[in-house]
Write a structure and sequence with these properties.
molybdopterin cofactor binding, five-stranded mixed β-sheet, Sulfite Oxidase, Chain A, domain 2, DMSO/TMAO reductase YedYZ molybdopterin-dependent catalytic subunit, OxRdtase_Mopterin-bd_dom, membrane, globular, 3 domains, five-stranded antiparallel β-sheet
């Protein structure tokens, strides 16, 4: 009989027991692995003092891969990079589970040892997580491994017993032979789903939603100005002036959004300061706050990409916090630290010079969403997020320039000023439009400098000056449009912006690494007769 069809367990005495069909062996390993993971996830959610081992493995993968691979993943997947990584981890775990089941059907001690080894990898990753309890992480890992091995043993034993009954009574109903294994497999699957979902629910997401809903942002002492008429052109297909929180792009290193109870959260201001101090969430909210309209963009945003967004932010000015702490001579860098261990640093002078640089607690009139940094994050106009936009902020640390943030050793530039950029939203790249009067429209941004002009060129024609929407603030993007008499055929459209310093967006194409892509956007459309 083919080894791929049925597998036998090798006993210590050297005999071979009743054979387990390969499909059942594989299913047994898969279900046992799922249950073991579910138990660990349930414990992680219930205890709160240890990380999800699945997320920890993913974090280890992110921290270990070379910078070029991370850049390629972001470029190819955009905001879908995290779901793809988690799905990949789940697939690998499933394949390992299948292999473990097949191995255990042959030699159970080896299969059990493999199960424990895989769990040890997860525990090792969990121990590297910030603020993880070593004792609880190891203990829960052992419990998860024990549950998984026990489930694997029971499933294989049941499958082997049914094979024995079938061989003893050849005329017995095949359905009856399979019933016991299928019932046990179904119960194991249900337990795996229940524990996994339970662990997710216990992370506090639902409770955090209620906590955020009860928070009322204080009235800022300096409010952002009213939106002037004509600042939002409302052209169909054109990006709105303010991006809704639910649609704002998200790029960060957190595989699972941290769920932080503001009642237990603190912000430290420390390092090279004369008067280090710590603030609770309530104390931070009681400090004078400002509003500012600021466009943020990711350094991984390709020319014409959508990893950029504009919002009205509210928070405590960084300058006020630094003045309270007393910045020491030589403290040339402000390093933001996240609760998940992420760090990002930028020149201290930027925080002191820019009135709009803040520890933000609000976004578009509501408390920060969890995905965008609740309870507090850094917002610094004019800098790419990889050096400035620390979410889930836990500490502001003043250091010298030799200390590197998370992304710098991974091949990104130490400084990250946002380059003057524009994007064509209408018509969509590759779309077909009707001949006649059409409109070309988009957005342009150069935070801290503002946008003074946008030019558009169709095919090899001259550059034409586009109409600009009313200015809102130099720190946020500006909409633009150009009426176009579209003629039948294929057309190439390009745009370029000029910022408030007189710098024209360059046509020289560069990749996103090490300090942001450059070049002006070019799209192709087809005009139907």
């Amino acid at each position: 009989m083919s080894a791929s069809a049925e597998l036998g367990e090798q006993h210590p005495a050297g005999g071979v027991g009743h054979r387990v069909p390969a499909g059942r062996a594989a299913l047994s390993g898969l279900l046992a692995t799922a249950l073991g993971i579910g138990v660990v996830e349930l414990a992680a959610g219930a205890l709160g003092a240890m990380p999800s081992l699945v997320i920890s493995v993913g974090d280890t993968v992110i921290d270990s891969v070379p910078g070029w691979l991370e850049r390629a993943a972001i470029a190819a997947l955009g905001t879908n990079d995290k779901p793809v990584l988690l799905a990949s981890i789940a697939l690998v775990a499933a394949l390992l589970g299948v292999g473990t089941g097949v191995l255990a059907a042959r030699r159970f001690p080896l299969g059990a040892a493999a199960f424990v080894l895989f769990t040890a990898v997860g525990v090792a990753a969990g121990l590297a997580a910030p603020d993880a309890s070593a004792v609880l992480t190891v203990l829960v890992g052992l419990v998860g491994a024990a549950v998984g091995v026990l489930a694997l043993h029971l499933l294989l034993r049941t499958a082997r017993q049914e094979v024995a009954r079938r061989e003893a009574v050849p005329d017995a109903s095949p359905t009856a032979d399979r019933r016991g294994f299928l019932l046990l497999a179904g119960a194991t699957a249900a337990a795996a789903v229940t524990t996994g979902v339970g662990g997710w629910l216990l992370t506090g997401r639902e409770r955090l939603t209620a906590v955020r809903a009860a928070i009322r942002l204080p009235r800022p002492f300096r409010q952002a100005g009213p939106v002037p008429a004509g600042a939002d052109l409302e052209i169909p297909g054109l990006t709105p002036l303010f991006i809704p929180n639910s649609e704002f792009y998200r790029i960060d290193t957190a595989l699972r959004v941290p769920t932080i109870d503001p009642a237990g959260w603190q912000l430290e201001v420390r390092g090279m300061v004369d008067r280090p101090f710590t603030l609770t969430y309530d104390e931070l909210m009681e400090l004078p706050q400002i509003e500012a309209d600021v466009t943020l963009t990711c350094v991984s945003n390709e020319v014409g990409g959508d990893l950029v967004g504009n919002a009205r932010w509210q928070g405590v000015p960084l300058r006020a916090l630094l003045e309270r702490a007393g910045v020491q001579q030589g403290a040339t860098q402000l390093l933001g630290r996240s609760v998940d261990g992420f760090t990002a640093g930028f020149p201290t002078i930027t925080a002191l010079d820019l009135e709009e640089a803040m520890v933000a607690v609000g976004m578009n009139g509501e408390p920060l969403p969890a995905a965008h940094g609740f309870p507090a994050r850094l917002v610094v106009p004019g800098l790419y997020g990889y050096v400035s936009a620390t979410k889930w902020l836990s500490a502001i640390e003043l250091t010298d320039w030799d200390v590197d943030g998370y992304w710098i050793p991974r091949g990104w530039a130490k400084e990250g000023p946002i380059k003057t950029a524009s994007r064509i939203d209408v018509p969509r790249p590759g779309s077909a439009v009707a001949a006649g009067r059409q409109v070309i429209a988009g957005v342009a941004w150069a935070p801290t400098r503002g946008i003074e002009g946008v030019e558009v060129r169709v095919d090899d024609g001259p550059w034409q000056q586009a109409e600009l929407a009313e200015r809102l603030d130099v720190d946020c993007w500006r909409q633009w449009y150009l009426p176009w008499d579209a003629t039948p055929g294929r057309h190439v459209i390009a745009a370029r912006a000029t910022d408030g310093a007189g710098e024209v967006q360059t046509d020289e194409r560069t990749p996103v690494a090490p300090d942001g892509a450059s070049g002006y956007p070019v799209i192709e459309v087809v005009v139907a007769d």
